[in-house]
Batch of 4 targets.
Target 1
Amino acid sequence: MHSEWTEYLHLTGSGVVSFALLRKHDELSSIVVDIESVCQTGRVIALENKLEKRITYLAADFLKDALPAGFDMVMLCDVGSFDEIMFRRIHDVLNRKGRLVIVEKFAPSRTSALLSRLLSAFVNSLESPAQSVDYITALEAQK
């Protein structure tokens, strides 16, 4: 963590990963973006951990809604799927030398699901039975 970073954008999740960073770096604060129900849960957890003054929750769909900009770091947590549009949106909120940090459990191969992804793969196959199921690997995300 660069010492000059004071605030970063955390996309998806209740902010639990951010809590660890906030505990380690007293000068750091975070803005967490996810749907309203996840933000509500995150606020409760932040209050229980006495971090509510250093973490802000923004209920939004980070793929569609306007996002705050000007960050040196954006952290993606457990998103599950990645595409060029998402990376472009993140690029637009980062400062010129900003960094993207991805906290994710990647599949071992494009055709092997992690247990945590099986339910969503099953639901997606019901919605689009003709579409093949591919899982994101670390190499694919880097591309």
Target 2
Amino acid sequence: MDAPAIVFLHGLGSCADDWTWQLPAFETDHRVVLVDLPGHYRSSLPGARLTVEAMADAVAALLAQLREPPAHVVGLSLGGCVALALALRSPDRVRSLTVVNAFARLRASGVAATLRLGLRLVLLAAAPMAVVASVVARGLFPRPEQAPLCAAAARSLARTSRRAYIAGVRAIARFDARSALARVRCPTLIMAGADDATIALEAKEALARSIAGARWVIVPGSGHVTNIDQADAFNATLREFIAAH
């Protein structure tokens, strides 16, 4: 295919399977690169301390190994942070950047979000990973009609080990790209779920304001996993953006 590849980077504790809803929309006319980030599902946890920057470097090394020209890089949540770090550390690898429900610096979005984070940390310390996965999945897909999506998310999240999940949480907590955002030069799309209860809308809007020329899109009716709970709107927005670049 002549079109540049699209690289999809998943969220914390999940895996490349999260992008199932995007394959029919993009694989017919783009090479699609699906990545399990280090420590997630089929990718082993490295011996060194896991950081967002190290994950970005691992993605850059993979693209170099595949001999990919600059690619459209799309990241959700943790994957969005990795995509942002990739654009900063290896700009020659990134043709365009799409960041979905992510941030330059993690901040709790309110009392409810702080309580949810506290519960997750308590469960990580004591509960089986299947329980942790179930609780996180219910937060991502809370509506009754989303029960099949919730069950699929729980299965996906349960594949990640406790050690890897904790390493990912620590990597997110240490990530801070705010001072470097002015160096992002590639076309950028910041996409936000209007009903995201995990990452504050203000944090995502601040990210969009800090990147020159970034496009800012809010997806109505969407929570944290916009590519799944509003897949049609997500795919249409991403396709329009990629087609322009």
Target 3
Amino acid sequence: MSESPIEALDLAALLCSRVCHDLISPVGAIVNGLEVLEEEKDEATKEFALDLIKSSAGTASKKLQFCRIAFGAAGSAGAQIDLGDAETISRGFLEDEKTKLAWNLPRALLQKNRVKLLLNMLAIAGQAIPRGGSLTVDPIGTGETMGFKVTAAGVNAKVPPAVPSLLGGETADGLDAHRIQPFYAGLLARACGVKAAIAMDGEKVVITAQ
């Protein structure tokens, strides 16, 4: 992998900030729900608060499972990750009443950085359809050197700002908790010896790593 233009400590700090950003909303909802349970006497309101706590705890758990693989160490150096497990945590992180995931990859073990790259590609694809839609994952090639194609389709689908240059390793405008994720995806791609790219294909956004 080519030398990163960001210090290791700054990269770690920004990735931690990104994870905190993802988790602050569901965790905050849990805290609010607990406060309602403590203060309210109305049974209907307390039941609503309990439902909110359960839902938010589930959301936080799914986000943590995704972030653990997408940004974390995910086992020892050289470890492999099951694509079936990657599918499960991706569905938990991305799918809801507005967004559906079509997973066309075979069940296989791949080197962890390659799977981490795939999850980061999916995170970017989710940002490309803020109003929901469909995400489709297809393989490029086979075996240990398999690449990926992620297609995002939805109303007003568009390439998120600065993502093409960040995937390429450019940081001219600086990095923050929002920009660090696509930049990190580019680092993972180069570590895997592939090139990551994003572009419009008609009204769809396509992200590739090959």
Target 4
Amino acid sequence: MKTPKKLFYGLVMLLLVLSAAAIASAQTAEKKSLTLDGAERVIAAVKAHAAQVKAPGGVIAVVDAGGNLMALERLDGTFAAGANISIGKARTAVLFQKPTKVFEEIINKGRTAMAALPDSFFTPLQGGIPVVLDGQIIGGVGVSGAATAAQDEELAIAGAEAAKSFGADPPMTSTLPVSYFSKIEVDEGFSKGSVLFDGSGGRNYMVHTSRREGPGMVEVHTKDTDILYVLKGSATVVTGGTMVDGKPIAAEEIRGREITGGESRNLFPGDAMIIPNGVPHWFKDVQAPFLYYVIKVR
């Protein structure tokens, strides 16, 4: 049996160990970091927003919490110096932990001495935003080469906003309604060929109940991928090759007279085909009525 004195010293040692552990815990903290996948997702968010607002060109740079470059993408039509500028903006945003617009405004108000800081880590131009996750700055995103400085910042903010969802559990439910079409509606759609579902609600797909009574023109959908499923009739479809006399007929839609080259396939009921956006395709011969579903994905 331990004596009271030994028991006391044992308790003291235990308290010292626990105190040391608590102090060590207080001196360290879990640090989140930006991964390459995360950097690429930031860039994807910037590109998606640029397409939505029809922003011309631009260079997107993403750096980690230390200002080291992780990912860079230069969109078509952007001036060559945009890469270095976007990197500088991203690095400035993360190292100074503020949007770069703040420093541009400070200099414009007369504190020009800040402009003398080395370019290697300070680019006081609008368009750099810290990337924050759960209150921690994990990186920075910089955009250069959009139409205006304000648009540079708008695109960078869109990229930084995407990072707020990193690590979040994916939604288990959707607020989008279920679409139902009765046999009567489907049959009516095929009787004349029509759009069954128009992609409403911000969805990136449409469903057509298509009908062909004869050959058609060559088609190119610059943004829509067509997924075909044949129900009735048959057709010879030519894909690829070169369109002859192609002319735009609507936004993102081109029509032509014929295809030179390309690959011919005969489609029958039960067959399916995927035609990526930008690929010429031509229903050259049709055994009517040719009925088929088309799912258009953009």
